[in-house]
From TrEMBL:
MF-aspect GO terms: bile acid transmembrane transporter activity; sodium-independent organic anion transmembrane transporter activity
Encoding gene per record: Slco1c1_0
Transmembrane segments: 40-59, 80-104, 110-132, 220-250, 270-294, 365-383, 403-423, 435-455, 559-586, 598-621, 650-673
Stated name of the protein: Solute carrier organic anion transporter family member
Lineage, uppermost ranks: Eukaryota, Metazoa, Chordata, Craniata, Vertebrata
Superkingdom field: Eukaryota
Keyword Ion transport annotated: yes
Subcellular location: Cell membrane
Major facilitator superfamily (MFS) profile domain segment(s): 45-677
Coarse class of the protein's main subcellular location: membrane
């Protein structure tokens, strides 16, 4: 691209803006050395930031993969797990405004490095309860434990059980209650996740703005897309790590694995959830090391030095020069008066509220912020409970669920984000085009999500819950229906959950409720005989049963395959609008407010989406529970069985309703941009140059959008700056 000296002189005379904080730049260095220094330093920062995004995404996605494990390990409902998940956002809330507003004035790389250390400390804290609490105890009938005493599952006469064994069992329960009564170890997980949120706070607002400040204008979108794409590799490894740890028993290395009588298909199974947090914490420490050796500033690219403006000014935003000069002159006077650190801090504090007023006076920023908040409510709730949904809806194990999400679903998201950045660079899409691309991806993504309503499985056949003991659909109260004539002679508890699978393909909550009179074998190989409830079915030719629940219907594996295909396409479609959305956010605000605006944006997402979404999604999912577990000392524990149909409508319905509302706000963003834009021929002068977009008086709190749009009909676009 070439520009004549006359054009270059006129360009500088009309658009020169006083530079901000350029004291660290060497004004007399040669152009080639500065270009090499800029590219080299920026590439190092880009690589380091990508690794940090990988580390934080790995630990965050690993937490998502262990939601069901934490729920079972601490015996808590989904709503409380949602509070634990939302504590990460609360940590962001505590310091996000200070970091975003004042962090841009300080040493941004070192602040990011300090955040990595805090993030690793929180990750280690999450794993600590495993070493403080006792071994994991699950509900299991005594006959399935390796013991020489053979106890009938149907205790028609309690004298069948030796008195010493009963006393010993009751003593263990009482001792466990005394220990658990004064301890709620899940609080350590909540505090650790809170600390993770504090450490992660400076990475996004300071890292992204650092790249946007020192990158070549046309490469900024691609760099941001690359960082976000590399960050997606973190969730891939996070879910794969979650899949590996879910296969290992929670107390591996502490107990004899041969004595474990439950399998991965059992809803009481808990994997080695704590192991992945130790690995994620170590990676976070390594990721923060390079930032302690990076400079506070990098040399500006030659293209930006020529225009003496940031990428927002040179490509998207053209402000009234007089207003900008006055603003920088006022800042210069304040800087001269502030001769100490305390006065400088005070001057920044006084500028806080005017900056906040300027941001909230920008209609594009406000509308896009509302659209993002509602959409992130939808996406965060959906992603948080997606592993639980797959496990309960399609009868998959935690290990397989995490493996599928990490290996199939997450790469589609990465490819979608990268595609969005590549399209932005390839076609030189402006703000209006970015808004269209973001809206289109959301619309078609949620449209595809609508088809998942038809890809669910029927409820598992569980006697007394989803069907009666005679094989008919369950219509009465669940708790009252647990007992029937076939088990009326047994001393059973309705709170137990020790499922067995009968020869008739029906799952029974326990061997006692199945009316089983005898058992053979120990541990996982236990077989029950003479089960009176199993023999009540006309199709049943045997009254035996084996340990563990029955698998879902024959159509469920096929539905699961369809679900995966649609889910991958939906994830890609929704992700395409990620990078255009970021560019729209950066280009619709004033350059000196970039870091602050990104911080406010992140704050709003954390407070209004990240914190409440997991909680009310969890509360809604809890309403679909058919069978609750019981704690050893009394009280409701974790859910053992969900109503598949109700879970599908609640989970997908809530996601789609929120997504639809966000689309309406995205349409409003596009409408405002179209209203403020003008035809390309009106913004070009007779000789083909851009006209002065600041001829009309506009309010200072809104950026002139007439020059935000890069027209695809500009004939000399390829040969001019």
């Amino acid at each position: 691209m070439e520009i004549s000296s006359k054009e270059n002189t006129r360009f500088f005379s009309n658009n020169t803006i006083l530079p901000v904080d350029r004291s660290s730049f060497k004004s007399e260095s040669s152009a080639s050395k500065e270009k090499q220094s800029c590219c080299g330093g920026l590439k190092i920062f880009l690589g380091a930031l990508s690794f940090v995004y990988f580390a934080k995404a790995l630990s965050g996605s690993y937490l998502k993969s262990t939601i069901t494990q934490i729920e079972r390990r601490f015996d808590i409902p989904s709503s409380l797990v949602g509070v634990i998940d939302g504590s990460f956002e609360i940590g962001n809330l505590l310091i996000i405004i200070l970091v975003s507003y004042f962090g841009a004035k300080l040493h941004r790389p070192r602040i990011i490095g300090a955040g990595c250390l805090i993030m690793s400390a929180g990750t280690f804290l999450i794993a600590m309860p495993q070493f403080f609490m006792g071994r994991y105890r699950y509900e299991r009938f005594p006959s399935t434990v390796n013991s020489t005493v053979n106890i009938s599952p149907c205790l028609q006469d309690k004298s069948q059980t030796p008195l010493s064994a009963l006393e010993k069992s009751q003593a263990k329960i009482n001792a466990g209650c005394e220990k658990e009564a004064g301890s709620s170890m899940w609080i350590y997980v909540l505090l650790g996740n809170l600390l993770r949120g504090i450490g992660e706070t400076p990475i996004q607002p300071l890292g992204i703005t650092y790249i946007d400040d020192y990158a070549i204008e046309e490469n900024a979108a691609l760099y941001i897309g690359c960082v976000q794409t590399v960050a997606i590799i973190g969730p891939i490894f996070g879910f794969l790590l979650g899949s590996l740890c879910a296969k290992l028993y929670v107390d591996i290395g502490f107990v004899d694995l041969d004595s474990v009588t439950i399998t991965q298909k059992d809803v009481q199974w808990v994997g080695a959830w704590w192991l992945g947090y130790l690995i994620a914490g170590a990676i976070s420490i390594l990721a923060g090391i390079p930032f302690w050796f990076l400079p506070k500033h990098l040399p500006k690219p030659e293209s930006r030095k020529d225009s003496s403006t940031s990428s927002e000014h040179s490509k998207f935003i053209i402000e009234d020069n007089k207003d900008q000069h006055k603003s920088y002159q006022q800042q210069g006077k304040i800087a001269e008066m502030a001769k100490g650190k305390s006065l400088e801090f005070l001057s920044r504090l006084l500028n806080f509220f005017p900056s906040l007023k300027s941001l909230f006076g920008n209609p594009v920023y406000i509308l896009y912020l509302c659209a993002s908040i509602i959409q992130f409510n939808s996406l965060i709730g959906m992603v948080t409970y997606k592993p639980k949904y797959i496990e309960q809806q399609y009868g998959q194990t935690s290990s397989k669920t995490n493996f599928v999400i990490g290996l199939i679903n997450i790469p589609a998201v990465a490819f979608g984000i990268f595609s969005g950045g590549l399209v932005m660079k390839k076609f030189r899409i402006g703000v209006l085009g970015a808004a269209k691309l973001s809206l289109g991806s959301s619309f078609f993504g949620y449209l595809l999500l609508l088809s998942l309503f038809a890809m669910g499985c029927e409820n598992s056949e569980v006697a007394g819950l989803t069907m009666s003991y005679h094989g008919t659909k369950q219509m009465t109260d669940y708790e009252q229906a647990l007992f029937s004539e076939c088990n009326s002679g047994c001393s059973c508890s309705k709170h137990d959950w020790d499922p067995i699978c009968g020869e008739n393909g029906v799952t029974y909550i326990s061997a006692c409720l199945a009316g089983c009179q005898a058992s053979n074998g120990t541990g996982k190989n236990t077989v029950f005989f003479n089960c009176s409830c199993v023999g009540t079915f006309e199709s049943s030719q045997s009254s035996s049963a084996v340990l563990g629940p029955c698998q879902k219907g024959n159509e469920c594996p096929k539905m699961f395959l369809y679900f995966l295909v649609i889910s991958v396409i939906t994830s890609y479609t929704l992700s395409v609008g990620g990078t255009p959305g970021y560019i729209l956010l950066l280009r619709c605000i004033k350059p000196h407010l970039k870091s602050f605006a990104l911080g406010i944006y992140t704050l709003a997402i954390r407070v209004l989406a990240g914190i409440p979404a997991p909680v009310y999604f969890g509360v809604a999912i809890d309403t679909t529970c058919l069978k609750w577990g019981s704690k050893r000392c009394g009280g409701r524990g974790a859910c053992r069985l969900y109503d598949s149909s109700a879970l599908r409508y609640v989970y997908l319905g809530l996601t789609l309703v929120l997504g639809t509302v966000s689309i309406f706000f995205s349409v409003a963003v596009l409408w405002v941009l179209r209203k403020k834009s003008s035809p390309p021929d009106e913004t070009l002068s007779a000789n083909g140059e851009r006209g002065n977009c600041g001829t009309k008086s506009r309010k200072d709190n809104f950026v002139n959008v007439d020059c935000l749009i890069q027209s695809t009909y500009w004939p000399e676009k390829e040969t001019r700056l």
